């Protein structure tokens, strides 16, 4: 296994997390280490031990030990010549498999297969611009003026009861 | 441009492209060649140009850089440098060069993928009972 860091690693656009000294975070599981469960690393991960579970790293993952489980590397996955990856689901941007390695599983590659780091964080819900409801202009209908029934006044004829003389 | 269509099983009439190396037959295509159909070949194949269908050989398959293959490939050692769409079986070793683009399920005994290659599909590794030649 080559331990030399490829130059491209330093030039990746993947914004792996940086430590306090400015270097990328890197986690190593040694030959005698064992992990059962899930592991998410902001940075690089090197596994020379045994993992039963899911691995996810925003940088590179290098496997020279044995891994059983899903693996997601936002940048590059390297399975070394002595490494074994039995992964139900392997999602990587780049993949290198050295001769002698064991690899089994569903492989998805490319930028579409791996979520971009930005997409990891829940995106704030976009406020939907309130659509102004179209105001329907209703022509004010002039209410028909109902002609009030005119009471017919009966004009009583003045009766002259008597002539005054 | 040579167009070789649907070669009958077991009788690869590769008069144009057949050459012998170390006493073994090799069916060799050029970038402008087109192979459509099913090729069962007792020897090795160098695929270039465009290949569609099925290629099963007893020897090795080598897909050149720039070739476009939409086919089932089965050989002892399979080396891909171009674009391949379809299932690939390598009874010994499958090698994906840095320019290789493979979309399909693969079954191999050994696997090597160079940085830069693209693979989308299911990978199975192990020994084989099934032999080539389509028998």
Quaternary status: heterodimer
Based on Cα principal axes, name the global outline of chain A: globular
- Which stretches of chain A are poorly predicted, pLDDT < 50 over at least 5 residues? 1-17, 118-132, 137-141, 150-165
Residue share in β-strands of chain A: 35-45%
Number of strands of chain A: 9
Instruction: Estimate percent helicity of chain A.
Output: under 10%
Main β-sheet description of chain B: 6 strands, parallel, barrel
Q: Helices and strands of chain B: which structural class? A: mainly beta
Q: How is the biggest beta sheet of chain A arranged?
A: 9 strands, parallel
Which descriptor suits the 3D outline of chain B? globular
Number of helices of chain B: 0
Strand fraction of chain B = over 45%
CA-atom Rg of chain A in angstroms: 41 Å
Topology, element by element:
The complex is a heterodimer of chains A (165) and B (135).
Chain A: H1 7-10, E1 26-29, E2 34-41, E3 44-47, E4 50-57, E5 61-63, E6 66-68, E7 71-79, E8 84-97, E9 102-109, H2 117-120
Parallel strand pairs in A: 1-3, 2-4, 3-5, 4-6, 4-7, 5-7, 6-8, 7-8, 8-9
Chain B: E1 3-5, E2 18-21, E3 24-28, E4 34-41, E5 44-47, E6 50-57, E7 61-63, E8 68-80, E9 83-85, E10 88-96, E11 101-103, E12 106-113, E13 118-125
Summarize the structure in words.
- The complex is a heterodimer of chains A (165) and B (135).
- Chain A is mostly beta strands and 165 residues long.
- Chain A has a domain at 24-110.
- Chain A is built from two helices and nine strands.
- In chain A, strands 1, 2, 3, 4, 5, 6, 7, 8 and 9 form a nine-stranded parallel β-sheet that branches.
- By secondary structure, chain B is mainly beta.
- Chain B has one domain.
- Chain B is built from no helices and 13 strands.
- Chain B has strands at 3-5, 18-21, 24-28, 34-41, 44-47, 50-57, 61-63, 68-80, 83-85, 88-96, 101-103, 106-113, 118-125.
- A six-stranded parallel β-barrel of chain B has the order 8-9-11-13-12-10.
- In chain B, strand 2 (18-21) and strand 3 form a beta hairpin.
- Mean pLDDT of chain B is 85; it is low at 5-15 and 131-135.
- Classes of the chains: A mainly beta (165), B mainly beta (135).
- The A-B interface holds A 6, 8, 76, 94-110, 113 and B 93, 110-125.
- Strand 9 (102-109) of chain A pairs antiparallel with strand 13 (118-125) of chain B.
